[in-house]
From TrEMBL:
Binding site for S-adenosyl-L-methionine: 241, 268, 288
Entry protein name: RsmB/NOP family class I SAM-dependent RNA methyltransferase
Gene Ontology terms, MF aspect: methyltransferase activity
Lineage, uppermost ranks: Bacteria, Pseudomonadati, Bacteroidota, Sphingobacteriia, Sphingobacteriales
Tree of life domain: Bacteria
Keywords of this entry: Methyltransferase, RNA-binding, S-adenosyl-L-methionine, Transferase
Length: 406
C-alpha cells in the first residue's frame, strides 16, 4: 500500500510539473500545497522524480511507470521498499555493478540504449569519455565546499562532530553527501563557500599578479571572483552582470568573505558597454559565458527531457556576440579566461577556435574539467592571451604636382 501511494504521488508530480520551471524550485511549492506529506514522504517523492529524469530520453516510448522502475533500479545501490514491491526480481540484484544492471535492463527492454539517455553524445567536447559521461547520470553528484584558508581544521572538526562523511579533494575542496544540511552544522557560514569541484578548478587558469585590475564580466553571485581574491587579495576588481537581483547575492557573499573594495556594474554584454566601461583596461578578464549548462545536468536531469538541439546554436551565437564586446578592454599580453559549464564542443572548442581566428587572441591552454569522474559537474575552461594590436599605418596623401602652392 505504501509503495502504491508513493507511485501515485510520483504520477501527480510528473503531471503537474511545468517544463519551464527547474524541478528544484517546483518541488518545494508542491510540498507546501500538500502539507500532509511527512519528511520521509517528501524525500521519497523527490528521489523518485529525480531518478525518473535521470533516465533521460531512454525508453521514451514506454509507460512512465516502466521508465521509473528502470531508473530506480539503475540509480540505487541499496534495497528500498519501492523497488522491492514492484520489481522483486530486480531488488535481488540491486547491489550489482552498474554494467551488470544495464545488462539486466537490456535483457528486459531490448530497445534500451545508453546513448538515448543523453542523445547528444556525438556533440560532446573532445576529451570526454562518452560512456563514462553517460553512466554518470545514474549517480547523484556530491555537494562540494571550498574551505577558506585558515579554517580547514575547524570545518573538518565540525563535520566530524556532526557525523558527516566527507572526502578531502585537495586544494581546500571537500566533497559531502548531496543533501547535507550545512546550515544545521555551522553557525558561521563565512568558513567556506558552496562551490562545485570543477568550478573550483577553473582557478588554475587565472594566475593573477599583485595589484592587477581584473573584470569578472558575467559574475553572477561571485563564485569565480571569490576564487580570484583567494589567489591574490590585492587585485582591483570590477564585477558585472545583466541581472540586478543576482548582483545583490554577490554583495551578500562578498560581505561574508570580508571583501569591501570592488566596483559593481549592471551591464548587458550583448550591446555597447562603453557607457559603463569607457577608458577601462584590464590585466585579466573572466568570462563565465552563458551556455546550455549541459555539463551540470547530473544535478538538473529534467533538462535532458526539455532541451532542444537548436539551443546549442543559440548559445554559440550568444558567446560569439559577447566575447568581442569584452576583449576590447583587455590589455595586450593579458589573459581572457573563457569558461562554460557546457559539455558541448559547439560552446567550447568551436567558440575558442572562432576567438583565435577572429579576435587577435592566441590560445595558451584549454581543458575539459571531467567532473563525471568525481561526482561533480563537467566544465570547460580556456586561457587566451591578447596579442599585440596592429598599429594602423599612417594615411599616405599622394602629392599632386599640379597643386598650386599657397
Amino acid at each position: 500500500m505504501k509503495a502504491l501511494n508513493q507511485l501515485k504521488t510520483f504520477q501527480r508530480i510528473l503531471a503537474e510539473y511545468p517544463a519551464d520551471v527547474p524541478l528544484g524550485k517546483f518541488l518545494p511549492g508542491f510540498f507546501r500545497q500538500n502539507k500532509q506529506m511527512g519528511s520521509t514522504d517528501r524525500k521519497v517523492a523527490s528521489r523518485l522524480i529525480y531518478n525518473y529524469f535521470r533516465l533521460g530520453r531512454a525508453l521514451a516510448n514506454h509507460p512512465d511507470e516502466d521508465r521509473l522502475m528502470v531508473a530506480e533500479f539503475l540509480c540505487n545501490n541499496q534495497l528500498n521498499s519501492f523497488i522491492q514491491h514492484f520489481k522483486p526480481d530486480w531488488a535481488a540484484c540491486i547491489g550489482f555493478t552498474l554494467d551488470e544492471k544495464l545488462a539486466i535492463v537490456k535483457a528486459t527492454y531490448p530497445d534500451f540504449k545508453l546513448t538515448d539517455v543523453y542523445p547528444w553524445s556525438d556533440k560532446l567536447s573532445a576529451g570526454i569519455d562518452r560512456e563514462a559521461f553517460l553512466k554518470s547520470f545514474f549517480i547523484q553528484p556530491d555537494l562540494f565546499i571550498r574551505v577558506r584558508k585558515g579554517f580547514e581544521h575547524q570545518v573538518k572538526s565540525e563535520l566530524t562532530k556532526a557525523e558527516v562523511t566527507f572526502k578531502d579533494e585537495g586544494n581546500n575542496c571537500l566533497s559531502l553527501p548531496n543533501g547535507t544540511r550545512l546550515e544545521n552544522i555551522f553557525q558561521k557560514q563565512h568558513l567556506f563557500e558552496v562551490q562545485d569541484r570543477s568550478s573550483q578548478q577553473t582557478a588554475q587558469f587565472f594566475q593573477p599578479q599583485k595589484w592587477e585590475h581584473w573584470w569578472d564580466a558575467c559574475a553572477a553571485s561571485g563564485g569565480k571572483s571569490l576564487l580570484l581574491y583567494e589567489q591574490e587579495p590585492t587585485v582591483k576588481l570590477v564585477v558585472s552582470d545583466i541581472r540586478e537581483s543576482i548582483l545583490a547575492n554577490l554583495d551578500e557573499r562578498f560581505e561574508q568573505a570580508g571583501i569591501r573594495k570592488y566596483q559593481k556594474k549592471l551591464v548587458d554584454l550583448t550591446g555597447n558597454v562603453d557607457p559603463e566601461l569607457a577608458n577601462y583596461e584590464f590585466d585579466g578578464i573572466i568570462l563565465d559565458a552563458p551556455c546550455s549548462g549541459s555539463g551540470t545536468w547530473g544535478r538538473t536531469p529534467e533538462m535532458i527531457s526539455h532541451f532542444e538541439d537548436h539551443r546549442m546554436e543559440f548559445f554559440q551565437r550568444l558567446q560569439k556576440t559577447i566575447t568581442p564586446n569584452v576583449t576590447k578592454y583587455l590589455k595586450e599580453g593579458k589573459p581572457l579566461i573563457y569558461i562554460t559549464c557546457s559539455a558541448f564542443k559547439a560552446e567550447n572548442e568551436e567558440v575558442v577556435d572562432y576567438l583565435v581566428k577572429n579576435l587577435n587572441l592566441r590560445l595558451e591552454d584549454q581543458q575539459v574539467l571531467q567532473g563525471y569522474t568525481h561526482k561533480a559537474d563537467t566544465m570547460f575552461a580556456a586561457r587566451l592571451i591578447q596579442n599585440p594590436r596592429p598599429v594602423p599605418e599612417p594615411e599616405v596623401i599622394p602629392f599632386d604636382m599640379n597643386m598650386t602652392l599657397q
